[in-house]
Amino acid sequence: MRGLVAFILAMLMAAPATAESIPRLEKRGEAMQLTLDGAPFLVLGGELGNSEASSRAAMRAHWPRLQAMHLNTVLAPVYWELVEPEEGRFDFTTVDGLLEDARAHDMRLVLLWFGTWKNSMSSYVPSWVKRDATRFARTVGADGRAQEIISAFSAEARDADARAFAALMRHLRAADGDARTVIMVQVENEVGFLPFAKESGNGADLAADERAMATAYARYVEAVAAAGKREYPLPLFVNGAQARPGVAPGAYPSGGPLAHLADIWRAEAPSIDFIAPDIYFPSFAAIADGYVAAGVEPPFIPEANRPADPRLAANALRSIGRLNAIGFSPFAIEDAGEAEAARMAGLYGMLESIAPLVLAAQAEGRIAGFGNPVSFAGEADLSPLAATLGEAAFTATTTDPWTARDAQDPSSHGAVLIWLGGEDYLVAGQGVTLTVEPADGRGRLGFDRVEEGRYAAGEWRPGRRLNGDQTHQGRHVRLPPGAFGVQRFRLYRY
Q1: pLDDT tens per residue, range 217-253
Q2: Bridge pairing between strands 414-421 and 424-430
Q3: What is the dihedral of CA 411, 348, 456, 103, to 10 degrees?
Q4: Nearest one of 385, 266, 302, 356 to 77, comparing CA atoms
Q5: N or C terminus: fewer CB in 10 A for the chain?
Q6: Is 4 a residue whose pLDDT tops 50?
Q7: CA nearest to 93, candidates 171, 17, 162
Q8: For range 360-388, the mean pLDDT
Q9: Pick among 2.60.220.20, 3.30.460.10, 2.40.50.140, 3.90.1150.10: CATH of 370-493
Q10: For residues 313 and 343, is the Cβ–Cβ distance under 8 A?
C-alpha cells in the first residue's frame, strides 16, 4: 500500500504543466502580450554571448552582475552538440544548470536552440552530423566547394533536428513545467543562406529565388518547431539577421525571417508564433517599424545591438511605448563594462518599477514612446515627436534646453508617456522635454502640478514638487539627461 501511495505522489509531482499555466502569448486589448501565471510580463532581457552558456562554471560570475542590472530574463543558447553528443543519447546537464541558476537568481529564461543553423552556419550540430555529409547534405559555396551549411532540403537533418528539439521540449516540460523558468524558445538562430539568394546559386530573379529559399527554410523550421510544440507548447519564435540597404539576397542571409518575407514565414511555419529582428545597425527604428508594418505581432528584439550602444535606452523606450514590444534584449550582456552596466541598471530598474503600468497601458492604448529615428548612416532626425493621449496633444523634444548642445547626445534620449486617466499622466526616461496643447484645439492646457518620484511595491512615492524652474514655470515637463527618472503630472485647461 505504501508503495502505491508513493507511486501516486511521484506521479502527481511529475505531472505536466496544465495548458492554463504554460506561458503563452495572449491578445489583451490593443496589444499582444506574453502572459505568465495569468498576468502580462515585460521582458527586461539580455542575451548571452554565443559560448557562455556552454559552461556552468563560466556562468557563475555572470549571474550576480546580470541580477544587479535588473534583468528579469536571460536569453541563453542551448547547443544541439551538447544535448545529443551521440545520436539518440541525450544529455541535459547544461540545460538543468541554467534552470537551477536562473531560479536561484530569480530570473526567467528564453532558450535559444542552436540546432541545424546558427548565423546561417551549421557549426553547433553534433559531431556525428558534421562527419556524415552523405546523410546530412551540405551546400556549395561560390568556389564550388562544400560549406559548413547543411542543406535546407536535407530530410535527414530536418528529422534529426526535430527529434532533438522534441527531446529538449519534453525535458523542459518535465523539469520546468511547474516552475515556468523558461518562458519562450527561439528555434534555430539567424537562419538564412549565403552566398547566393538560394541553394545551387543565383538565378535570373533574385527576389523569386529568395522567396523560394524562405519557403524551404520556413518548412524546415516548421517541422522542428511542430515536433517541439507537441511536447511542450511554449511560445516559439525565430530571429533574423538584417540586410544593409541596397544589397542583394545572398549578400545578407537570404530567406531568413525578415520583414519582407513575413508572409512566407507565417504561411509555411504556423508553429512559429512570431518572427523577430536582430538589430545591430543604427537604423533601429526603421527596422523595428518595418516588422510591425509587416503585421508581426508581438514585437520583440532579442538582439538589440550591444550594451555599449549609446542609443540602447532610447530604442528600448520607443519600442515598448510606441510599438507595444513585449521586451528588449541587448546581445553579449555579460560583456557590459561598468558604465554600461550602470546604464542598464538605471533603465531596467526604472522599467521594472513601472512595468504593471506599462503593460496595462499597452493593452488599453494609453501609452506612447519617444526616441528619434536614426538613419543607417548614423544621422539622427531630431525633429519634434508627437503623441495624443486623452484630451492632450504632446510634443516631445530630445535636445535638452538646459544642457549645452555639445555636452549631450539627443539620439540617446528617450521616454515612455502613460495616460493614467482623467488629467493625470506619467513620463519616464531621460533627456526628453514635453509641451502640451488641447487635442481639440480649444483653449490652453497647463500643468497643475508636476512631481518627481518613484514606484515601490506598486505605490507612487512622491519626491519634489516641480512647479518652478524645473518646469520653466509651468511651460513644460522635463526629464534631464544623464539619469533615468519618473515624473507624474496633472493637467488643467484654461
Answers
A1: 999 999 999 999 999 999 999 999 999 999 999 999 9
A2: antiparallel
A3: 170
A4: 302
A5: N
A6: no
A7: 171
A8: 97
A9: 2.60.220.20
A10: yes
Question: Per-residue pLDDT tens for 18-68?
Answer: 666 899 999 999 999 999 999 999 999 999 999 999 999 999 999 999 999
Helix 312-322 and helix 338-364, axial crossing angle in degrees, nearest 10: 10
Across the range 155-161, mean pLDDT stands at: 98
Q: Which amino acid is at 75?
A: L
The CATH topology of domain 19-365 is TIM Barrel (3.20.20)
Neighbours of 97 (CB within 10 A): 16
Task: Check residue 17 and give its pLDDT.
Answer: 56
Distances in Å between the Cα of 235 and the Cα atoms of 111, 364, 445 are 11, 23, 44
**Closest Cα to residue 348, out of 149, 101, 66?**
66
pLDDT digit string, tens, across residues 320-371: 999 999 999 999 999 999 999 999 999 999 999 999 999 999 999 999 999 9
At residue 317, the 3 state secondary structure works out as helix
* 302 residue type, one letter: P
To the nearest 10°, report the CA torsion of 223, 229, 234, 240.
Answer: 0
| Side-by-side strand order, sheet with 236-241 | 303-304, 274-279, 236-241, 182-189, 108-118, 73-79, 43-47, 327-328
Residue that has been written with the C-alpha cell 485647461 in this structure: 493
Task: Please tell me what DSSP assigns to residue 98.
Answer: H
Q: Which amino acid is at 330?
A: P
Report residue 137: phi and psi, to 5°.
Answer: -60, 140
Sequence spans of domains, the chain: 19-365, 370-493
